Amino acid sequence: MKAVYLVKPKQLELREIDIPAPLPGEVLIKIKAVGICGSDVHFYEHGRIGNFVVEKPIILGHEAAGEVVEVGEGVENLMPGDRVAIEPQVPCRKCKYCKTGRYNICPDVEFWATPPTDGAFREFVTHPADFCFKLPDNVSYEEGAMMEPLSVGLWAVERSGVKPEHKVAILGSGTIGIMVLQCLKAVGVTDITVFDIFPSKLEIARNLGAKEVVLVKAKEDYKNFYNSFDVVFETAGSDVTVSEIPHILSIGGRGILVGLPPSDSVPLNVTELIAKEATIETVFRYANMYPRAVELVSEGKIMLKSLISRYFDLEHVPEAFEYVISKRAEIVKVMIVNNK
């Protein structure tokens, strides 16, 4: 089968490798759609994210959906022909975090496209059956692939404790920011302000129901919103936006860190946080969100297809990455599809 490896920063290579056989409890899946995530692009450009370093060739891609073509011994919930969204993490299932439902922070979790674990830019993959979720007939493979970023948004909203009457800000209207926006709308929140530096992305947020959008040209643009929001979601992964959270939070507010900033240490006004008795929550991936994500999309409460800007096939993954980089100010999602 064909697979695309990141050999070193800015160098992707198409290779022929063997099709794996499913182990007991696993299924073999023909990959039909994979979204390009910001983390994929970061690995492509820099070869690392924080402590995760590409030290040998790796297959990127963790937002995936496909068709089950073979089931391993003991699999009863799936059969060949089933269309599935694939949750790209495999925890140990034994540690205290797994046993209490927080398997996303399992110390031994294997997460696709995070060194050294390979991802989904390939034709076939094996995966535990219980981390594969059937897609209803009205949900496409491309939407199935986007259950992954949607799950991040759902997890962020769940951890925030947000209520319908809260006034909410989202800092960043990339893929995750847009997912958070739609998840907030789905739980009844209406007073949502979205901040970004790109007008085209703010227009998407407006069309999806943001009450107000703010084009940020300088740090001073935040001053009009000091002490304004009950809940602030930071989804841009920017040192600047993280540092603004204490200022724009209202007294007793909650700041939710979703994005991963480029710096390990970010200036944060702790004195102001304490004076406001504000709370900072962090979000790392998600746990147990895929069934709800599939349900929301199937019911038409979350819109995903309109967020896809362009499609490429597996043979043109390098061009797809360069397209994402060149158009990052305009697009939300690019999809790698296999229609064969």
Concise summary:
The protein has 340 residues and is α/β, with parallel strands linked by helices. Helices cover 26% and strands 29% of the residues.
Report the sheet-strand fraction: 25-35%
Low-confidence stretches: none
* Overall CATH class of the largest domain: Alpha Beta
Fill in the CATH topology of the largest domain.
Quinone Oxidoreductase, Chain A, domain 1
User: What is the radius of gyration?
Assistant: 20 Å
Major β-sheet annotation: 7 strands, mixed
Number of DSSP strand runs: 20
CATH architectural designation of the largest domain: Alpha-Beta Complex
Can you say what the CATH homologous superfamily of the largest domain is? Medium-chain alcohol dehydrogenases, catalytic domain
Structural class estimated from helices and strands? alpha/beta
Morphology? globular
In total, the number of domains comes to 2
Cofactor: Zn(2+)
Pfam families: ADH_N, ADH_zinc_N
GO molecular function, one term: zinc ion binding
Organism: Thermotoga petrophila (strain ATCC BAA-489 / DSM 13996 / JCM 10882 / RKU-10) (Thermotoga naphthophila)
Report on this model:
The protein has 340 residues and is α/β, with parallel strands linked by helices. The chain folds into 2 domains: 2-146 and 304-337, Medium-chain alcohol dehydrogenases, catalytic domain (Quinone Oxidoreductase, Chain A, domain 1, Alpha-Beta Complex); 151-282, NAD(P)-binding Rossmann-like Domain (Rossmann fold). The chain has 10 helices and 20 strands. It has helices at 38-46, 96-99, 141-145, 147-160, 175-186, 199-207, 239-248, 270-275, 290-298, 317-326; strands at 2-8, 11-16, 26-35, 48-49, 52-53, 58-59, 63-71, 83-86, 89-90, 110-111, 124-128, 132-134, 167-171, 191-196, 212-215, 229-234, 249-257, 279-282, 308-312, 333-337. Strands 3, 7, 8, 11, 12, 19 and 20 form a 7-stranded mixed β-sheet that branches. Strand 4 and strand 5 (52-53) form a beta hairpin. Helix 4 packs across helix 5 (175-186) and helix 4 packs across helix 9. The longest helix has 14 residues, at 147-160. The two termini are 13 Å apart. The mean pLDDT is 96.
